[in-house]
Amino acid sequence: MATRSPKISAPLTFDLPLGLIEKIQAIRKGRNLKTASDVVRLAIEQFDFDGCEPDHEPHQQISVRIAAQQRATLKRYSKTKDSSVGELVRLALESLPVKPPRARR
Fold first, then answer.
1. Rounded Cα gap, residues 62 and 95, in angstroms
2. How many Å apart are CA 92 and CA 78, to the nearest integer?
3. 7 CB contacts (<8 Å, ≥6 apart)?
4. How far apart are CA 71 and CA 21, in angstroms?
């Protein structure tokens, strides 16, 4: 589960389509996460940035807090993928299922 980093997180503001904001809320409920920041941190942790192919659509701006290490990761991939940080976060969020996978028995 994504965890809050107390002193090393900083605001990150980016645009999201309204449908993806709704998905963040559904993921929060489905995974019992407290904030949209928790959802974004989890998506960044689990996303394969090496294999992504960015695209574009209309957006709305939101602000979340992420760790400095995640911000550095996003900036690095932003340069190598010739895409914005926001687009990479969108790809990470879009790939995150609303509910966590069931534990194997």
1. 18
2. 13
3. none
4. 20
Kindly state whether residue 101 falls inside one of the protein's structural domains: no
Q: In whole angstroms, what is the distance from residue 80 CA to residue 3 CA?
A: 27
Summarised one tens digit per residue, pLDDT across range 12-53 is 888 888 899 999 999 999 999 999 999 999 999 999 999 988
Residue 2 lies in a domain: no
The whole domain housing 57 covers: 9-95
pTM beyond 0.70: no
Q: Which residues contact 60 (CB under 8 A, 6 or more apart)?
A: 15, 16, 17, 18, 21
Provide the domain count of the chain.
1
Helix (H), strand (E) counts: the chain: 4, 2
Handedness of CA 19, 21, 23, 25 (dihedral sign): negative
